[in-house]
Fold:
Amino acid sequence: EDNNIRLICGLGAHAPMSRIDLAKKVGEDVIAGYTVYNHNAFDNCVYVGTTSYGNKVHLNSEVMDCDLKIAIGSMTPHPFAVFSGAGKIILPAVSSIETILTNHTMPLTDEMRVNWDINVRRLDMEEAAAFAKMDMLVDCIMNMWGDTVSLYAGDPVSVREAAIVEA
Structure:
């Protein structure tokens, strides 16, 4: 039922969105019909595990309390994760400030900055995302004008693998 559906804006450590921003993002009808939260990296996060990179992962407790988790994002070039999308929808999007800082301070070589398969920050994000136990991931690929040119939806690992090939 609608009263059991909640949307959580994955902001990482960015400032919360105002009602006007939220309405632009999801629409006034969505705000009126559903509970919509801004993620807060400084509060309301629970420990879910530690990655093989030693990152203690704390995720938004509202997210972790959900029975069905559908994450929606986009895959675009990213300066230190190679591409956004995939695991970034969890780390940093709905992670604690400590988890984000641990990830964002992992040293990168020049080769890691351009290679998805060896980028330690990206690999840490994917491990953290597995702790969230997402049921479905939706990632879009956009052109330089912001138009969606491809859409991938399904289990998070399959979506990640398919979208990264095209991206």
